[in-house]
Design goal:
This protein has helices at 25-37, 55-70, 82-90, 103-108; strands at residues 2-8, 11-20, 42-53, 74-78, 98-100. The protein is α/β, with parallel strands linked by helices. It has a single domain (2-105), classed as 2-Layer Sandwich (Transcription Regulator spoIIAA). The protein has a five-stranded mixed sheet.
Amino acid sequence: MGFSETRQNGVVVVRADGQLIVGNRHELKDLVARRLAAADRRFVIDFANTGYIDSSGLGALVTMSKQVREHGGELRIAGLNDDLRALFELTKLDTLFTISDTAEQALAAF
């Protein structure tokens, strides 16, 4: 799994490649924490190239969302495949996050 970040119109877009699991969740959390420390407040995490998120990955997303909100920001999710979207619905995380089909749609909604 790898994470890459870009900035588009004042929004940090994090692209996740592979799986978000116990072994790499801290890498994503650290990336968001660094951007928060640098005064970034708007985030899109693009999971278009992600096939699996385990429970620790979901927990990391919840923690990051809370941290971003505490700083007056917003974290949005994009690019979930059908299985991941069903997971977010089953766990009711679709009520916590604004979820878009694509990163471009998430960016346009800011």
